[in-house]
Design brief:
With 223 residues, this protein is an alpha/beta fold. It has helices spanning 17-30, 45-53, 61-64, 77-84, 102-111, 123-127, 129-139, 161-172, 186-189, 201-213; strands at 4-8, 34-39, 68-71, 89-94, 114-119, 148-153, 176-177. It has a single domain (4-213), classed as Rossmann fold.
Length: 223
């Protein structure tokens, strides 16, 4: 089994799944981990991002996305990734939205150690986490063991009370909420299609640390 496997999952598109998956993959790669990024979304957003970033004249193509990538929008993803991943890999799966591609999303949930639900601190997005949790509970019967599941608060307005309130509501609903919240910043909103910049990585290092603390320690992510 890989050292760590995470699926970014939500009910609907536009919740920050691909952005989170790509930034996390870069953080773990920068920390010296071998990374496998799986684009399981039929829209292929992560793969398209990689292709566009490789065209940047400021970097050698292989340095734009310095890790292995595979497109695998398949209902047998849990079997096929197991054949591809190396024991030392950090596997990050950009899963599709449940409402349109439930079979693929369920397969991703069957494979990973951690299901990470990106969620903005708004009532509508918090409400939409309930169908995701229901799916996680149903998939438990097909797994070798229980999956960890947590919420990543993202697109948070700096110093806004909404982030604290959302955390309290989600924890009251029984969710584990990662300590690090991702702020709403232009560097994240405008990052699609370009190499990941150095600015803004500190937040995602915090997310990576939070994920590491929830599993067998892999060592610290260096700054």
């Amino acid at each position: 089994m890989p050292a760590l496997s995470v699926a970014l999952l939500n009910l609907k598109p536009g919740t920050g799944k691909t952005t989170s998956a790509v930034w996390l993959a870069h953080i773990f790669a920068q920390a010296g981990r071998t990374v496998l990024l799986v684009d399981a979304d039929p829209s292929g957003s992560a793969l398209e991002w990689s292709d566009l970033a490789a065209m940047d004249p400021g970097l050698p193509p292989r340095m734009a996305f310095p890790f292995r990538m595979v497109a695998l929008p398949s209902r047998s993803l849990h079997q096929r990734v197991a054949e591809i991943a190396h024991p030392e890999d950090v596997v990050i799966i950009d899963a599709p939205q449940l409402e349109d591609h439930a079979g693929i999303a369920r397969s991703a949930m069957r494979y990973v150690d951690e299901i990470l639900i990106p969620c903005a601190p708004s009532p509508i997005e918090i409400n939409r986490t309930t169908p995701v949790r229901d799916e996680i509970n149903e998939v438990e019967a097909f797994r070798g063991g229980p999956a960890r599941a947590s919420v990543l608060l993202n697109r948070c307005i700096a110093r806004a009370h909404s982030t604290t309130s959302a955390r309290e509501v989600l924890e009251g609903l029984g969710y584990d909420v990662l300590r690090t919240a991702v702020p709403r910043r232009e560097v994240y909103a405008q990052s699609f299609g370009v190499p990941i910049p150095e600015i803004g990585r500190d937040v995602w290092r915090g997310v990576a640390h939070d994920l590491i603390e929830r599993c067998v320690p892999l060592g610290k992510v260096p700054s």
